Amino acid sequence: MVRILSFVGTRPEIIKSLAFHRAAKNIPELEILFLHTGQNFGQTMADCFWEGLEIPLTESNPNFKHETPGAIAGSLLDYMTSKIDEYKPDVVISNTDTHSAFYAAMAAANRKVPVAHFEGGIRCEVRTNPEEINRRLADHLSDWIFPIADGDVQFLINEGISKDKIFNLGDITLDALNIVLKEHDIVPQSGDYDLLTTHRQENTNDPKRLARILKGVADAGHKTVFPVHPRTRQMLDSGLPAEALKQATNIEILPPQGYVDMVRLAAGCRKVITDSGGLRREAYMLGKPVISLVWFVWFKEMLKLGFKKSVGADSEKITDAILNFNPQGERPPLFGDGNAAERILRKIIEKVSDEA
Amino acid sequence: MVRILSFVGTRPEIIKSLAFHRAAKNIPELEILFLHTGQNFGQTMADCFWEGLEIPLTESNPNFKHETPGAIAGSLLDYMTSKIDEYKPDVVISNTDTHSAFYAAMAAANRKVPVAHFEGGIRCEVRTNPEEINRRLADHLSDWIFPIADGDVQFLINEGISKDKIFNLGDITLDALNIVLKEHDIVPQSGDYDLLTTHRQENTNDPKRLARILKGVADAGHKTVFPVHPRTRQMLDSGLPAEALKQATNIEILPPQGYVDMVRLAAGCRKVITDSGGLRREAYMLGKPVISLVWFVWFKEMLKLGFKKSVGADSEKITDAILNFNPQGERPPLFGDGNAAERILRKIIEKVSDEA
């Protein structure tokens, strides 16, 4: 029996858990435990993401603290270390690029437990991007890395990480998306609205950037739905962007959405305007043009194929892309075939057995 | 004026501060502030290291907590972040491979302040070695890296770090050693005792390893002085290694020594038996054979030249090396010329000015 401990802190990690939990049902020699780190903006946010997903959560950290960088680091490391000591896993999963992902890798390395990192190798080559920091450090702490695209494999090799630690077995996000489409009878079709999301510090912590984004969307005049992340909400409730929002009468504000509802919104929209790394991939998988609100680039492949346009927080470029960006042509399966989770879990079991 | 903030937490960082403080006197356009992070095993340990060095300390962190990994991370990150916000430095120094060094780089990267990392690039390629974790992660968070040996430059390049971020300008440890030799009229000569130190978790947290080390030194029967790190002290005071120590009547236990006294002991001894990365280099600089108590290798060059023997915690090998390891031959200056600190500070000023 191989015991895997997966620390889950934020939306992309919850989505991965859905795929892993379903895949694990096919693997009797595996026990996978999901522990919520308490990250996210308040318990409501996390609850909303778990809703309707039927993933058994072993427990949640009641003591997550987010007030300062030290509080985040301290509360995550202590929770994770104590749980590694308690459950004695064979492997700890580090999911993606969040604080929870980095500190899970750190806690496991401290305790000399092997680390498997999902979505490793993605790089935008901006040193102080918070996700870049977490992802790169987690990669360099890991025993096995599971990137989701060929370009990311190359980034890892360029950083001296041995090829025999790297396995590109597909993107778990596609597994999860397929599960939700199927189980909730959602059929992708082009609707009469665009979908807008923004949650990255680069955009949400700068009221001028957020105001420029809102102006760009407002000027296009197209009906737009905007599920608002709590961090974005805080910024909207203060000063400048609130003014910009008032003028954006074509934008419909929604509370944070659970994963199933987000898939429904993405499947039914015309275009996706976002700074999210997960949603942009889901949009590509669903055949939606992606307008990216960050100026740096993840997934050069999507850009090369013409399905994504990076506009940053430039109002005019955003308006122009909403009105005129209509990618056509081939849309090859960049992110695997939707069966990544089971392949990855079986690979982990194989590696653990090799080392035993 | 360029303001550099140097967080200093442990012995090797204090030694570097000595060299930087003296070198900075020659550079009027520079302000360098030394802040003590409070790391080390209790305030006494830190006090003892600062003793006699005349380095002005801007302040000390009164709230360092060492009880758990989270307490260490949290108390360091919060202190450092608040001091970066307060002093608004142009550059933050990350010294070597300690928790203080890693979290200094992390705090600065979070605040988008450039990071200069000293002693970067050293690798033993053991993923869960605590120093390897801190050093590798600090390297990947840094803007400019100052390795101390050519082999380490290559490790950095192999990890995809751009050559124009890497400057091998010599080892600051040699600067500091020369300062102390000169100012305290210490002349290296081969005495009638060996010098033993051990402080690494790999050795101090495992009573069996520590007992084997003591047995190896006892069996050689040679007079040995043993300044004891507080972590080693804790282990000696409990069970098995205490027994081994009783039989080692040739070993003289000393309390932790200040830097000047350590240099005096190293300069006057016959051989150095250690798991310290700093002391082994100082020993080489002083012409002393080094018997290494770790099985993994830093500084392959010293090994290749035959001035170091890696014996780990193997009693017989330790005894044999004490009795029979007598390296001869050329001892080229592997670690620079003793003027590294000023060159490094001037390089940092140049890089800051380039980016302004």
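Chain A touches chain B through 30 residues (CB under 8 Å).
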